[in-house]
From TrEMBL:
Highest taxon of source: Bacteria
Cell membrane in keyword set: no
Source organism per UniProt: Dysgonomonas macrotermitis
Single GO MF annotation: hydrolase activity
Annotated motif Histidine triad motif, positions: 94-98
One protein family per Pfam: HIT
Name assigned to this protein: Diadenosine tetraphosphate (Ap4A) hydrolase
Phylogenetic lineage: Bacteria, Pseudomonadati, Bacteroidota, Bacteroidia, Bacteroidales
Alphabetically ordered keywords of this record: Hydrolase
Length: 140
């Protein structure tokens, strides 16, 4: 737990960026509000300040299984050509992975995704619809 961390605190900064979808075995899944890459989500590990290499094999498997579940769900729901996985965290050392679905005719296909293009935002009913669809697949 770190007081300055938006994943630990679930503070307003986090609420401005993402909406919680649900919890999985060792992580929490969020819908990224900026939706240039339709279906974009963030999966945050339950504990603060860990690198993937610091997880035990069991923790690593559990986390990657969560990530994989979300990726499979996004693939099923939105049929992207590819899902990009981003784990950066230079200034926010709480283990989290961005999932950015990429589409052949969509933004930045064939290149890295932009962290926050600040271009595509949905209406509240659209966010709710998306969250419900993803949650329905994840919580079975
Ligand atoms: Zn944290």
């Amino acid at each position: 737990m770190n007081n300055d961390c938006l994943y630990c605190n679930k503070n307003q900064t986090q609420k401005d960026l993402m909406i919680e979808i649900c919890e999985l075995s060792v992580s929490t899944v969020f819908l990224f509000k900026e939706q240039t890459y339709k279906g974009r989500c963030v999966i945050a590990y339950k504990d603060h300040n860990v690198e993937l290499y610091q997880l035990s094999p069991e923790e690593l498997l559990a986390f990657m299984t969560d990530v994989n579940k979300v990726a499979a769900t996004l693939a099923k729901l939105y049929s992207p050509a590819k899902i990009n996985y981003g784990a950066y965290s230079d200034k926010l050392p709480h283990l989290h992975i961005h999932l950015a679905p990429k589409y052949v005719d969509g933004a930045d296909y064939g290149s890295t995704f932009v962290m926050n293009p600040q271009k595509v935002y949905l209406t509240d009913p659209e966010y709710t619809e998306m969250i419900n669809s993803i949650k329905k697949e994840l919580v079975k």
